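Re: How this chain folds, sequence and tokenised backbone to follow

Filed under: protein folding, tokenised backbone structure, sequence and structure records.

Contents: The amino acid chain and a row of whole-number tokens, matched residue for residue.

Body of memo: The sequence and its backbone structure tokens, given next.
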Amino acid sequence: MSLWTKKAKNPFQFYTSVKLRELTGKHARNLKELVEIIKEVSGSVIYYHTHVFLQRHQTLSPEPPNDFAYWVSRVLGEYKLGEELASIDICEFSTIRELREKIINVIENYLFENKEPLRYAPQGREFEFIKAHSFVIPTGFAAHNLKEFQMILDKITIHSIYFHIFEARLRLEKGINDFSFWIGTSAGVPELADIIAALDPYTFTMEGLRRKLINVIKKYCIKKPPRLTNENS
């Protein structure tokens, strides 16, 4: 029995999510207002403004900057701070709380070091805080082994891949993406799970990430034939 067809303990159920945007009514005109509101809004607001570009610009790589970096640079003209915000490695954080604290620290340090008067956004270009409500929906696809898993990866929407890779790890605070968790536990291939977990998904387009995942799984299963035991021989 090969890794391709070795039956997992539990099938992987593929889900997707639909986003409903909600205006919070909060606006920032300058950096001080921006950082104070960042401190008080819900985690779903922080998640939205640091990940919206991934779905809005699905074909661009590397990914465009987060909303905070974009507004600070393009609207306020604070290019140095914008570069610092854009360079935050989201992969370093396992929770929204940690990511929020990093953003706050970067802005507050900049404000402390920069003694120039605050710059104000032109009327109509204030930073508008948005919350995203996620509705999780089953796709109807389930994989019982790695062969089925990679075949389904090739046909599901990028929104499903986004949900299992990005939302599961950070917004849902699982600490690891759903694919790696299933492959390492139910499918029983922890080495492959670690390889996928080590990928930086933020450096790929969504379609590029799909292709990378499929190729990694195929390559591993070809190079690593399983040791047969009495249980699966």
In short: The chain has a mean pLDDT of 88.
